[in-house]
Write a structure and sequence with these properties.
This protein has helices at about 15-20, 25-30, 35, 40, 45-60, 85-90, 120-130, 160-165, and strands spanning about 5, 65-70, 70-80, 100-110, 135-140, 170-175, 175-185. By secondary structure, it is of the alpha+beta class. It has a single domain (about 5-185), classed as Aminopeptidase (3-Layer(aba) Sandwich), CATH 3.40.630.30.
Length: about 190
């Protein structure tokens, strides 16, 4: 399998629709949960879809798609943390500091391609994407696990995959949910 990772532009919206299916990934979320919080649950899937389509249309790309040939097999949302205010409302993902980090907030991998390196390719693609955008660091909120979990419990990724990609734990407000970062720019030290 040869994977190619591409930014989600308006031209690739049909591929995201096809990957997510009629109801959207994760019960109609359409990658709006971290943007609007639990309001996504009260919002019809069609409205969440339209809202996310507007985000894509406005730009810049809010994430990346992974392709195996012409088949879209995975998605990762990667964007500046400030675009995802829901991260600040959860104690698991509470801000560590004021650094203007980018965030990997969620993945969706097509059934049949899970466990085949798609998440790893998306993590590396997200790191390159954030670094090119001059982000000082890329942050993630994975699950720390050694056992197989349902795909819904690991939608934020698996800590071991991030560790292999050079991410380090910077906090753990909840033990099994570390906050991990990959630094691109060295943080300045405060003047003494």
């Amino acid at each position: 399998m040869t994977l190619k990772v591409r930014p989600l532009t308006p031209a690739l919206w049909p591929q995201l629709e096809e990957l997510f299916g009629a109801n959207g990934a994760c019960g109609g979320c359409w990658c709006m949960f971290w943007r609007i919080g639990t309001a996504y649950q009260k919002t019809p899937a069609a409205k969440n879809k339209a809202a996310f389509k507007s985000v894509v249309k406005k730009g810049p790309p809010p994430g990346l798609l992974a392709f195996d040939g012409d088949i879209v097999v995975g998605w990762v949302q990667v964007t500046p943390r400030v675009a995802l205010p829901g991260l600040d409302r959860s104690r698991m993902t509470a801000r560590v500091d004021d650094a203007p980090v980018w965030s990997i907030s969620c993945f969706y991998i097509r059934k049949g391609w899970r466990g085949k390196g798609v998440m790893t390719a998306l993590i590396e693609g997200a790191a390159a994407f954030a670094k090119k955008a001059k982000a000082p660091a890329l942050e993630a909120y994975p699950v720390k696990t050694t056992a197989k979990k349902s795909t819904t419990s690991i939608y934020t990724g698996v800590a071991s995959s991030f560790a292999k990609a050079g991410f380090e734990t910077v906090a753990a407000h909840v033990g099994h949910r570390p906050i991990m970062r990959r630094q691109f720019v060295r943080a300045r030290k405060a003047a003494a």
